[in-house]
Amino acid sequence: MYQKKSVILQGKDWVLIWMYGLIALIGLICIFSVEYRPNDDVVKSLFAFQKNYSKQFYYLIVCVIVAMFILLTDSKLFTATPNLLYVFGIGLLIATFFVGKTVNGSKSWIPLGFMNLQPVETCKIFTALALAKYLSRSDTNFAKPRSQLIASAICFLPIVFSLLQNETGLALVYFSFLLPMYREGFPPAYLVMGASMGVLLVVTLLFPAKPLIIFLGVVGLFLINSLKRKIKRNKSLLFIIVGAWALSTLFIGVMVPFLFKHVFQQYQADRIFSMIGKDNPYVIQNTADITAGTAVEKKAKSDKENYNVKQSKIAIGSGGFFGKGFLKGTQTQGDFVPEQHTDFIFTSLAENFGFIGCVILMILYLNMLLRIVFIAERQRSTFSRVYAYSVAAILFFHIAINICMTIGLAPVIGITLPLMSYGGSSLLTFTILIFILIRLDSDRQMVLR
Amino acid sequence: MSVFNQSRKNVISLIFIALFAIIIIRLFTLQVITSKYKILAEDQGTFRKVIYPDRGIIYDRHRNAILQNVNISDLMVTPNKLRGIDTFTLCKILNIDTAQFQKKIVELIIKNGRSRPSVFEPLLSDEKLAMLNESMFKFAPAFYLQERSVRSYPYDAAANVLGYTAEVDTNFLKKHPNEGYVAGDYAGMTGLERSYEKVLMGERGIEYWKRDNKNRLTERLGNREYDTLARAGKALYSSIDIELQALGEKLMQNKLGSIVAIDPKTGGILAMVSSPTYQPKYLTGSERRKHFSELFLNPALPLLNRTVSATYSPGSTFKTLQALIGLHDGVISTSTRFSCSGAFYGCGSGKPMRCLDVGTFDLRDAITISDNTYFANVMQKVINNPAFPNIESSLTHWDNYMYSFGLGRKLGVDVPSEKMGNIPTPKYYNTVYGKGKWNFCNFRSVSIGQGEVSVTPLQVANEMAYIANKGWYIAPHVIDSIEGGDKYNQLTAFKKRIQPTNIPDSIFEAVHDGMQGVVDRGTGAGAKVKDIVICGKTGTVENYYRGVKQQNHSFFCGFAPRENPTIAIMCVVENSGRFGGTYAAPIVGLMIEKYLKDSITDKARVARLEQLSKLNLMPPRIFAELRRQDSIRHSKDLSYLLAKGYIKLVKDTLGIEDDEVNNDDFDKMNKDKSKGNKPMKDTSLSHEALLPKEKKSNNISDSSKRQK
């Protein structure tokens, strides 16, 4: 009898649920502080579905209902349907090209009447499930490059579509699937190489090429000198160092300019450079096809992006240690930060509650991530573990990039802050992601395939 | 099962922790270490709104407000709320067409943005305001009325004493740093408004407001703990008798000149009339600029406060002082007689100094009939006094007397732009004639107040106060006390009695006798008032304008009553012709009657008053100058017509000759333009009515720049 009564609640990870609720609530409060003006009738507008915070309030209710449904389902459902769902997701992505609606310059939304659906966003769930399904197959040996390639293909296929839909930011999220893959045995060398390429790219943009190559050469020589004995024993180490230097030189001298001149769209290159506070030196030189008007337009656009980051930094920086107090932020109340309720919601928290508030939120998020990692490791089934790591990775990527974006450490690429940013699509996605995990976790003693 | 990869969990956790640590460190530098963003946020998120207090009120001696504030409305507009406004009705009320309306709105948007309110029409006239008020609901919320405080003058008098306020310009800001002025503020520029600016301006309040991204003020910041309240300017209590002042202005209509009346017991100025004057309200309100340029270009110099800024030869009024010196030095006695056989021949040949009444006079009679020869002899005796080794020391001795009488130096009156006047010194004659090469005969005309000596009307009035008090005076001043006390020590100098000499009362009695005789039976009989003993002295002052001899100035100075005097007064009517007794004396008589008897009721006296006030004694050169200016203006009109294409028709019919005329006009015009900021320089400056130097260098030329 007891078991039947608490079928939804039994074996659920309450820590995660509480953290989910807490962060979502903080988000709602922050959205409220963005929109609230003195003399507003709070109760009335909360239920009126006019203001963003009232909409978010209703989205939260919807999310709670959806979460209940997920908890009520059989966890076998999630192991049975991933392939179907994945195909459905890709189908949605393709459908976007035909029935898509353009919002903020990217044609990645499908209007559903009551809300707009962004398939790139929802497809994350399906991809996570599909990856988990593939890796948990009994005949998958992830040590084989063939399996690694197929797993990568599953993760990166949606990237192609979202790039075509001009949603670069959301496309990047799919790179977070490298993390579960790494956990399952993906060779770290690939990751290290990828990461060092990223670092080298940033460094290349920041410093002039020739001194950088010389500096790297000096570092290499220093390495050779300090590793003399090891090199004597193992000559290949020397080749690795020299080869790495040669590769970096090639990367700095040839590949980066090539990337910026021919691969990136100009506005993307501009965006990256504006983030590090420089003018784009790779501006296409033949101005014949660029009229003065578009040049001005582009200048205005890049100014606008600078303006966003500047205002965001001002709002965060002016918060100080203890913050200005709830609803007392002059920058928030003055509408200075554009898109504050969505991508820049963090600024509202940072201004109102200061460094202390930020640290508390960061600790909450970190706890959530580590909790998910902990949950992942206690699963008996590979499916659940891979899925849990996928959720952690997606959350991590979103949190890190979004906050770095607001404090000027990352380019503004339009990634929401999980559970906090305004928007039904984003909130629902993360709710589903997390609650599927919680559902799977409650069956952690079973081996799901 | 990839259990062997379990350690990778730690790597992943570490990555999470590391990145979060980086973010927290970055947040720490942004929020705690750097203050740059806090400053930026304050700059853009908050607004220091300066609250202007009302300026102080000025009262006359009977506590009538003579300068106060009234509220005038500005019509404000917020362009982004304009949709659905009844523009047509508004344009009709404001007397503009819709095209002008559109143009103005566009200008305002460019200047001030769409969402911030701008002034659409400043300082609405009463009728426009009434009409707008009636139908304001049609224009809300884009338009609204905003009141502001403007100076008003209930008695419409004393413009030159009170002065005016104007927007501060860059020069003013440079000269008054750290006093809290910013561009766009108003500050007192002349008169009492200038002298007591610190007191009148009050203390500005500051309110801190939150501001949004469109620069709109949204709400007050915090609990107003940083705000400071505005404090209204303090009131000034002056010694001016506004009715006396108004009477003086009425009497001086259509004349050049001035009247200064002082209460000898306190040094308080009762009336300070400079004519021509202007309606003080001319320099407030929407038409201010237009009126200012009119006044500024007027050759009669209405903006000049002649009482302190114009200097004249004192003429025969000077003789009273000569008598004091002669008696005190003991070179003459009250019974000393000199005879006049028609002129002063003490210097032998050359142009003799003529006297009007041939005969032999003692001191009293000499003052009464203003005998030139007598005072030439007195001064000759003072200068050639054997008690002094040489003429330089004796002239220095004489100069010191004059300085102690308040001449040749600034009296320190609290109205700006006071001139020093001039008392000739030995040094001056040394440079003109060479050391030792001059004697009394070189400056004998000084003895009767002509030649190198010059004074301001205020100095003469003060000198009368000195004689009336029998040997002391208090520095003349307009303001007696300040509400809330004299914080800036502006009034200290006006509290102490100045007794520069120890001339005994008997000597003053003798001079008083002579001066009473002037009014009773002498040259100043026109000043006579029934039942009041008036002591006075006339002056008929020869003067030159650009080297050409002009009509005489008419002077009269005096005090009344003789015993226990309560008014010392001086009047000058420039270039009136005739004698001091003709015009200045009756004006003074009426002023004294008004002040001592409080009103003029006698029919004959009222008739005299009306007659004098209607009298036009404006020198012809003023009209000539006005005509010249008109013709320049006319030529400008021609150029306008030419530009519009109307003039061509005239040309066709009148032919070449007319062209020449036009060219001439254009030349004149260009010349006028090339003169730049000082169009007055060679048009109307005269040696007796110079624009004060310091004034020229700041206010007026500043203002003229503003006009451009």
Give a summary of the structure in a few sentences.
The complex is a heterodimer of chains A (about 450) and B (about 700). With about 450 residues, chain A is mainly alpha-helical. Chain A is built from 20 helices and three strands.
Can you tell me about this structure?
The complex is a heterodimer of chains A (449) and B (708). Chain A is mainly α and 449 residues long. Chain A has 20 helices and three strands. Chain A folds into two domains: 2-183 and 310-442, no CATH class; 192-300, no CATH class. Chain A has helices at residues 2-5, 14-35, 42-47, 52-72, 76-80, 82-99, 119-136, 145-164, 168-173, 178-183, 188-206, 209-226, 228-233, 236-263, 266-275, 292-317, 330-333, 345-377, 382-406, 424-442, and strands at residues 101-103, 106-111, 116-117. Chain B has 708 residues and is of the alpha+beta class. Among the domains of chain B are: 72-154; 620-707, no CATH class. Chain B contains 25 helices and 22 strands. Chain A binds chain B through residues 37-38, 142, 179, 182-185, 313-321, 328, 330-331, 333-336, 350, 354-355, 358-359, 362, 365-366, 369-370, 373, 376-377, 382, 389, 392, 396, 400, 403-404, 407, 409, and chain B through 1-2, 4-6, 8-9, 11-13, 16-17, 19-20, 22-24, 26-28, 30-32, 34, 36-38, 40-42, 44-46, 210-214, 218-219, 221-222.
